Fold these 3 entries.
Entry 1:
Amino acid sequence: MNLSLKSTTAMALALGLASGPAFAGMDEARAFLDEEIGELSSLTREEQEAEMQFFVDAAAPFQGMEIKVVSETITTHEYESQVLAPAFSAITGIQVTHDLIGEGDVVEKLQTQMQSGENIYDAYINDSDLIGTHWRYQQVRNLTDWMANEGADVTLPTLDIEDFIGTEFTTAPDGKLYQLPDQQFANLYWFRYDWFNDEKNKADFQEAYGYELGVPVNWSAYEDIAEFFTGRDLSHMGVEGEVFGNMDYGKKDPSLGWRYTDAWMSMAGMGSEGEPNGLPVDEWGIRVNENSQPVGSCVARGGATNSPAAVYAVTKAIEWLNKYSPPAAAGMTFSEAGPIPAQGNVAQQMFWYTAFTAATVEPDLPVMNEDGTPKWRMAPSPHGVYWTEGTKIGYQDVGSWTLMKSTPEDRAKAAWLYAQFVTSKTVDVKKAHVGLTFIRESTIQHESFTERAPRLGGLVEFYRSPARTQWSPTGTNVPDYPKLAQLWWQNIGDAMSGAKTPQEALDALCEDQEDVLARLERAGIQGDIGPKLNEEQDPEYWLSQEGSPKAKLENEDEEPITISYDELIKSWQ
């Protein structure tokens, strides 16, 4: 099965959906089900038609309304914008414009709507990283109350919230659901399975390092593997050109911040133990008290953003970027670096988003076998020397539907219908095949993904395993994501460029974060769940306490550990 956005867009054009609806109703719905969905649904045809009938009926009061929604630009959202939005318009008579813009621009638009009260978009797909922001500012409709009250008449009876795998991340400490997941992807370890299983490579690595070449469990092993492959002659495998043991990016750009908050620092072991995020100290180094109030970011207030573990995390990233990565990587952004491993000269990448899977399984790539199976695999990322069992080990992006209170109720209802259409059980299996961003348990378990799993490099196995719950988005310790996120790339960019040492950059970062927390505290706009900063103390006081922030280790080089990928997969099953 090789489904692409191009082919599905062509189907939509053939159906006449992309040119806007001539009229609304079940005839269009049946044509959509025949031509676009087929058997790629977790529902029977009868159940699909029942869902479509609901959308036709519920949309009747809003026929002719024009609404605007927005998301970042990834394959899943391109499919929604180019195929599903026209189909929804044809079926319901609600004209949907689904804009695609950069992730940073989505946050900026959302922030502008929060500050101005002007209805810029009728719904947003924005990351659940903003859950702490939404919960504290109370400017978005909490969906628990919305579905039970004003939105009850436009809530799909078969929406089945329990089937969504990411609602833990979009539920606030008050127990309310604030966002509805639309797409999810994790950052995992990516490696050349064929290179790691080559007998000459295995023998040479064993001789050089004294242990078996395999999936690295910790950063010490990752570093050895990076060193081993960088500059290695792989002509015996038909590999031409220079080979590198690591891939990353380092340009001073908003995406540089994601690389650390999502969640390099927790992988190093900076935060506290706890799921889905460390408590009391999260992967941003922000500490909260028992009332979930942020109390500090610097070690002097009990935070960990400038702690020894954080310095270790940034130092290692810079060292590996400079020593073991393609020279151009230091000047790349997230989106520029993403496709590089698929070009065939990178051995491994610790920090690889599964959103790139669709683009990394194209048939003619040098990382694909002739039979359609990949030469690469994905696995859990290794952890740093400060990491302990129970600490967050990686990031999962959960792009989620968000309804602002500043959106008029009728427009919010129309947008909510569209949000449910693109996440419905009718549509979700097909959407997941196009974008490979799973949101529903019923989709993950669909037989079509059992069939396709061998061609997706471990993605299906990961999402069917209990391990997936250990990968989580930014949690509720972060009280204002838009204000705080920009501080990360600006300050860490200084360390990446060499303008500051990692310690200097992180000292500046935690102070900048505390300036924002202090302003929010003074303003009092987040009430009794807003920041309440601790008094500063000698950092040694906090470093001597159990848990995060953690004191500097005398030796930051631990015994390297690797595991066989095939054994790892067995443990997941």
Entry 2:
Amino acid sequence: MSIDMSQFLDTFYEESFEGLEIMETELLDLDTGNADSETINTIFRAAHSIKGGSGTFGLNAVADFTHVMETLLDEMRDGKRQITQEAVNLLLTTVDVLREMLTALRENTPLDDGRIKVTHNKLEELLANGSISSAVAEQTTGTTTEQATTEVQGWNIRFYPHIDMLKTGNDPVRILRELASLGEMKTTFDGSALPAFENIDPEECHLGWDIVLKGDVKREDINEVFAWVEDECDLSITELGGAEESPAEQAPITEEVIPQVTAGDAAPPPAEAKSTSTVTKSKTSSESASIRVGIDKVDSVINLVGELVITQSMLSTLGQDFNTKNLGKLVQGLEQLELNTRELQEQVMRMRMMPINFAFQRFPRLVHDMSQKMGKNIVLKMTGEQTELDKTVMEKIGDPLVHLVRNSLDHGIEKPEQRKAAGKPDIATLGLNAYHQGGNIVIEVTDDGAGLNEERVLAKAIEQGLVPADAELDPSKIHELILLPGFSTAETITDVSGRGVGMDVVVKNIRSLGGTLEVWSKQGEGSKFTIRLPLTLAILDGQTVAVGDEDYIIPLVSIVESIQLKPDMLNVVVGKGETFKLRDEHFPIIRLHNIFGGEPRTTDLTEGLLVVVESDGRRMGLFVDELKGQQQVVIKSLEVNYKRIEGISGATILGDGSVALIIDIPGLINLSNQTLATATNSLKKSA
């Protein structure tokens, strides 16, 4: 009987990617002057496992490529070969290539044969001669597989953004503009996936481009352009005249020559889409489909299930011949059932919890590569790596963390000569720290760099029209300006920053997880960015409030206090609506029935209750009829089951079977401001 080996492929890929992470970590920690033999053995074992597994599954390209790497590592661990920085750098590049090969094979996309051959040649050269000759070292990823010294004359690029790419703040127009600056660009626009005009969502992208880029352009320059969106699009980059069919031949749609794309250009409107072909696009999720769970967590769940079975058996026995004499036992059984259920919920949630080290592990390599590229001496210090949070939260916080780390590397930390002139050590420190605080996880990104230049930030904000010219702001408010959409102080465009992807994208992604971002900085001393996130997106501690016949859930983490208003605490400010005074400060009032509709029991602010909430340093009062109680609720996505509603983050089913909406505090504030602005404009027009 033959065995279908394909059923084990997913496990092989997961274990291989874990092995590559181990190899990368150990290579970064390797002391080239006095390498630890166990470290070399660890790297060798990971490479050997990948080679063996790939051979078993018939992935011969991976097996052949890894064989040379394994031979090199074998000589290093036997002491036959000296471990040099040149060798370590090449092995790190080899890890990158292996990761790209495995990703391409898993997603059934073409291998980058040119990059594979160049790296393979370098390994062979190092293995044969002990170093890489200048002829081989100068080979780049863009060289052809036939002759490494041949100049590339152009590239075929197939760029199809995923439908949600715009929601992350990335703009295809900016990407096309950057590509056009590299050479002569000819595009084939595909609008075949556009829905009918009345169904178009402006936050969704249904367009695609097949691009021919001519000129002596390096592959790495193209990679830099797509660095921010590589996980948010279907992307294929092949050399002109390569074995693959060119994108233009695959989809002869509407052609246009774009020698230069200027600011303000946009993608062609739907009416111009004249495609007669259909392009099939598949979005491959970057999130892991499985999770490894410690046996202790599984044992705990099994034990609790056993307790539940015992409790169920007891209640079943009571129900067979129930009488009032057994009422006490029934109550006791129900209490035990409640206890077992609560413990089971906690243990199951623990199974989804993973150490944040899984999100942190990409940064040693990132800091290593970026610091070398920028000529800076930076040491990365990570603490709290074993702090646990929900797997879904961790997978989605990765990109915002990358933005913050890159921001510190590029804008925050100075070059060694600048640090010495300022009386600082030439080696800078970048810190990543995680810890639990209440029901949240706090992640801090710190650096001892130059800090924010408050005068420059304010001047840039005024220049870009983000604040009035006569604005006088305290330092904390100036720091928050860098979080506004469109703000940038980058004078030049680099592969690290300046491509129109701002800190507002980071804020948006963090808020989508129910979190907040705080900025602290002191000029000359450094900066700290603090992210606060819920431990899980599945369960929420909330306060149930009533407005008329409707129930709403307010996240407990957002509530400051609840108060009964007195007449002397109220005020009406022109252009700002109703406000209340609390401890010598005035805050706005939001009437939930005005936002979401419905009939309240009272419209008199002194008869209802005010729930004081806080978000991003802003406080306001939510006017409700009644406070009911606090409870943990299971969050159900409203967007998946119905549609997205501003000011609402989800829904839950209460104990009585009714549905309650969960309030999104930041979204509610924005919605209230929009409602107030509309009302103010209407009053001005009527006047």
Entry 3:
Amino acid sequence: MSSRALSAWTRALALTTPIAQHPQLTLPVLIDRLGERFGPVPALLSPQASLSYRALAQQSRRYARWGLSLGLKRGDVVGLLMSNCPAYLAIWLGLTRIGVTVALLNTHLTGERLAYAIDLVLPRHLICGASLSAQLESARPRLARGVDCWIHGAGESALPRLDLALGSLADTPLGDGDYAPPSLTDRALCIYTSGTTGLPKAANISHFRVMQWCHWFAGLMDTSAHDRIYDCLPMYHSIGGVVAPGAVLVSGGTVVLRERFSSTVFWQDIAHERCTLFQYIGELCRYLLQAPPQSDETRHHLRLCCGNGLRAEVWEPFQRRFRIPHILEYYASTEGSFSLYNCDERVGAIGRIPAYLSHRMPIALIAVDRDTGVPIRDASGRCRRCAPDETGEAIGQLLDSDGGDDGRFEGYVDARATRQKILCDVFSAGDRWYRSGDLLRQDPQGYFYFVDRLGDAFRWKGENVSSTEVADSLVSCDGVRDAVAYGVVVPGAEGRACMAALSVAADFDLQLFRRQSSARLPAYARPLFVRIVPELELTATFKLTRQRLALEGFDPARTSDQLYWSDGTQQAYVRLDATLYRRLLAGELRV
């Protein structure tokens, strides 16, 4: 382990170990103390508004008093549907201060899906940014029960204005008798999973977890009052809304907020705002690498970028072109019981666990049936650990310990969904492990690598196919902007054949693509079907969604997109029309 990595782990442990010793010190309480300490120092900056540390503490206390004026108390839920802005953080800090749980709603949801997410948490009130009022109205008639709704900001909505209601409320510290303060074990937030493979779930996030996230990443990134982090990720997600801002705020630094990611202005913002850090996720780095050169892309003060999902083939070109001194890649999920950190900067790896922390972060890879997702057990009923470089599902042991975030699984609002994530009697009678649903492999040196999501891998011609590995190969082909791979059922054939949906450039050559993909992939993993799409649908965390694409398959009646079939006889992709589709269904053509 390098001295840099050792220092990062040591700092993270030093900052997080004391958290459990102060059960009443939640992030809202800490923000009050930081407000006194840093006063006029900028805490949150955005083009529309800014808050100093003192103003952030004051605003959060106003929202707390607003909640108390409505009779909100410990255990009540309030939904928050707003775009990125300084008020977003002030709102949930204020409400969680008095014990309220704030559900951070996905701003891309509308209608039935938004109503589903709201109903899942049963809020008493819902706060909506003025720019999203139409989305709220599309969901309100579908709600299972009434919810008192408030608008934040000027707009055309007839709903009461929360920002105006704050005017008469004091921003002074709350007294001990004003409310029953929550402890670290109480729930602070509900954060929704991204829903890449189905309806999202609402994960329970305690005050302890919030504090742990903020201080752990503050230690790993070595944040200080001199740091300025660029955060363009959605604030309703754990990374954009808690980890990125929290890791810098607890150290007295500044958070530069943007409503969304834009490759056009990204480097201009980074340079102009003198940012020293930025948070990435998913495909953000690859989008930047694909963008035309910009004069500001190396005129920056960055010392580190931190995030997850940086593909191995993107890592070095990205770091070299944009002159990024250091990259901290990690693996984590909002609700997961364990995380991995690549403090050694091993290209392509998602992390490694130091030997001296193995007792605190018990992680294993177990063999699973790729088709059913069921763990493979031996004659005694125990799961089988994977050998080095063997792919398996990552699981984390659930520990009864208050010493750290790893080993905790706080579950979902839906108890059934919680039970489905827990695996029992894995290696010994009575042990309990959290199922990540992710397929990883671990090399002989102990480094972990992401392979795929369980269920996104499939079998064809008797071989296992990783949709992630296929997509990684396809995006390196000429003219391919984005790619997602998935398995589709072909009547008369066992398993699922590979199909790829591609977003392509104007000069894309399908037959060249066939030759290049054939050179990069084994025969069983090559796309038998190709779908050309205007753009690929992304979740808010830049994850490609494939469920709808897989359901539509290669049926030309279900899409207006161009579909192609790889004809082995002609050694070329041919346009897939209704006639060809019927012949494939009838088994007249060899696949």
